[in-house]
Amino acid sequence: MSDHPAVVLALPPDLVGDLLPADLRARLDRTATWDPAVNLQAGPAPAALARAEVLLTGWGCPTIDAEFLAGAPRLRAVVHAAGSVKGHVTDAVYAAGILVSSAAEANARPVAEYTLAALVLAAKRAFGAARDLRNGHDGHRHAPGEATGLTGCVVGVVGASRVGRLVIAMLADYGVEVLVADPYADPAEFRAAPPGGGGAAGGGGATLVDLDTLCRRSDIVTVHAPSLPETHHLLDARRLDLLRDGAVVINTARGALIDTAALTRHCAAGRLDAVLDVTDPEPLPLDHPLLVLPNVLVTPHIAGVRGRELRLLGAYAVADIERYAAGLPLRGAVRHADLARMA
Ligand SMILES: NC(=O)c1ccc[n+]([C@@H]2O[C@H](COP(=O)([O-])OP(=O)(O)OC[C@H]3O[C@@H](n4cnc5c(N)ncnc54)[C@H](O)[C@@H]3O)[C@@H](O)[C@H]2O)c1
Which residues form the D-isomer specific 2-hydroxyacid dehydrogenase NAD-binding domain (predicted)? Predict the structure, then answer.
């Protein structure tokens, strides 16, 4: 680690201005030696790479394997101004003792905000009501006993991931009971369900339950686990059958976590509603029923940072480069041992 490390960019060229606006560039100027005109995603720069101590990466950056590292003998840290590092960081990076950091924590906030908005609107049945309105049906009148509104709901959070934890924290003031299912969660952190599968959460806490219990008890299930071989179809046909009539499924994680065909059947039958920012396949074919069902909202993978939010990734990455230069641990450090169960 040096006082003013040589930083080389490997950022998507069209987004550099959004990821690194002027104030963040100024911070980088003060902390590091870098050339804004050199960007490995815009063209090869072997001389700069040979001097690089820190690589500032983003979506679409080259794979950092043994061959890449042969041209970067001084590299000590890969700082990713985006979420998952699985697309570009190989075992060779860890074998060389190079530090890895990701801005997934920064990316998690907009996803959690999207989820909160989806929870509120889905609980109001707002999407179906808006389409009904366009068809001439005014749903303004109260219907006695209708099961709408977030207050009093049981919300099931699948995965105590960065996004899942933020959602749990945001729900603290919403008067809901929160259940969480995650085989890796520390029972000491969440209250465990009492024998019998119940469990009243209060004070903004979440109750740790198994996934089947979560499916049976939740009014709204929101999916935040990473896409891994073992989470493929985590919500399969059997578990979707466990959901109560009128339940809502929200997926901002990855499409493969849910059996799309089974979910489509339930939504087409009007038994379940869904808000899907991610799908399997993605995008869905234009004639897919999920795109036209009145009780389903599909958005095109927009929950993560976009537009003005891109600077959140840049700010997180620049802060970690500042920490690196100061000899401090990286906030977004990704340990090799944790990679297998991370997004
Ligand atoms: N829609 C978007 O634009 C968008 C943006 C960012 C992230 N995502 C997705 O959101 C999800 C969460 O991202 P993150 O960065 O918070 O994830 P993360 O890397 O923090 O998740 C890791 C955690 O997931 C939990 N987990 C692992 N296996 C599990 C299982 N079988 N069941 C339940 N929980 C399990 C563990 O607690 C683990 O520590 C991921 O699927 C990610 O791809 C989507």
Answer: 118-303
Q: Ligand 1 test: best mutation among 158, 163, 312, most atoms within 8 Å of CB?
A: 163
Structural domains of the chain in order of their starting residue, each with its CATH number:
7-102+307-341 (3.40.50.720), 108-298 (3.40.50.720)
- Identify the residue whose tokens are 């980088």: 28
Which tens digits make up the pLDDT trace of 68-109? 999 999 999 999 999 999 999 999 999 999 999 999 999 999
d(CA 75, CA 77): 6
Cα(134) to centroid(ligand 1), Å: 36
- Rounded Cα gap, residues 248 and 250, in angstroms: 7
Residue 276 Cα to chain centre, angstroms = 13
* Rounded distance between C-alpha atoms, residue 193 and residue 173, angstroms: 21
Q: What is the 3-state secondary structure (H, E, C) of 121-174?
A: HHHCCHHHHHHHHHCCCCCCCCCCCCCCCCCCCEEEEECCCHHHHHHHHHHHHC
- Exposed e or buried b per residue across 79-100, where buried means at least 16 C-beta atoms within 10 angstroms of its C-beta: bbbbbbbeebbeebbbeeebbb
Q: Which atom of ligand 1 is nearest to the CA of 254?
A: 41
- Assess contact for 79 and 56: CB atoms under 8 A: yes
pTM: 0.95
